[in-house]
Structure to design on (311 residues):
């Protein structure tokens, strides 16, 4: 069996031997079907699926996105089962399939870590999930999760710098940022050595290189400057100020959810897991689960389907 997580930007697949992550921007017409076809074999023709890509703005409504993803998956895996926010598997496109990938992760982990909060830091968003409240999590939409603080729209790769910063300090002078799409969080984490170039899996804002010097040039642009104008240290300073803001937003909300849910520990997954372990005294799931922690919903939906004898 294969577990599949169809996001707006990434397609993640996990089977018994491999973890595969494809950059698959649905809003750019990414070839979802052909990417899926690469992973169908005679011994790997059953699929458990979650999604969040229905929110991509190429779809007029989420229902259109759900139908597109279900049709695409079924072209390759006709007997696929789709996990919903009701905690159940479905055969066809229904509203409950929208953004259920986080709940699949919670469903899998809730018996292993019943008193924990799951922090899953992705390329685009951050999920903060109190596993002890699993029955209350069912049915939550993304807007409800935003309101509860269970979803923060910031991630390790695709977050535009001005979403978290309005002003940075350049040579000791408070400097407002341009709101243009000049640099993203991947540039920050690349120059701070939090990620490697091969982990910069999304497009760059300027369609240029994924090197540290290219990232520094993009960071200089957020204050309407060339890198030569402000120097590398100031560009690195922009990166550090963004990271401090991002870290504070995420850690503060995790602590609030822990307090509200009376949880005793934090378990951490996703591309940014190791960055938060010390601050939150957390458990890095990559040490427990290996690389599948970077594709947790795809792994989790497969395991839940096997546990519940769905396929």
């Amino acid at each position: 069996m294969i577990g599949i997580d169809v996001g707006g930007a990434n397609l993640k697949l996990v089977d018994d031997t491999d973890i595969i992550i494809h950059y698959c921007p649905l809003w750019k017409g990414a070839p979802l079907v052909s990417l899926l076809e690469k992973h169908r074999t005679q011994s790997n023709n059953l699929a458990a699926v979650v999604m969040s890509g229905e929110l991509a703005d190429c779809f007029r409504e989420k229902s259109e996105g759900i139908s597109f993803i279900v049709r695409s998956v079924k072209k390759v895996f006709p007997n696929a089962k789709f996990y919903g926010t009701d905690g159940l598997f479905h055969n066809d496109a229904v509203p409950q399939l929208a953004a259920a990938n986080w709940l699949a992760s919670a469903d899998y982990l809730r018996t292993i870590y019943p008193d924990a909060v799951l922090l899953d830091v992705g390329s685009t968003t951050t999920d903060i999930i109190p596993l002890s409240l699993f029955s209350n999590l069912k049915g939550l939409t993304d807007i409800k999760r935003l309101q509860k603080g269970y979803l923060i729209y910031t991630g390790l790769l695709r977050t535009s710098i001005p979403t978290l910063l309005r002003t940075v300090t350049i040579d000791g002078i408070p400097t407002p940022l341009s709101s243009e799409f000049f640099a993203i969080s991947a540039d920050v984490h690349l120059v701070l050595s939090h990620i490697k170039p091969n982990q910069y899996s999304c497009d760059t804002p300027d369609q240029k290189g994924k090197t540290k010097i290219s990232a520094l040039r993009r960071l200089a642009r957020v204050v309407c400057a060339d890198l030569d104008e402000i120097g590398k240290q100031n560009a690195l300073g922009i990166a550090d100020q963004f990271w401090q803001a991002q870290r504070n937003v995420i850690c503060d909300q995790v602590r609030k959810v822990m307090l509200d849910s009376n949880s005793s520990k934090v378990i951490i997954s996703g591309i940014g897991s190791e960055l938060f372990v010390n601050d939150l005294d957390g458990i890095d799931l990559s040490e427990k689960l290996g690389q599948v922690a970077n594709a947790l919903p795809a792994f989790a939906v497969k395991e839940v389907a096997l546990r519940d004898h769905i396929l």
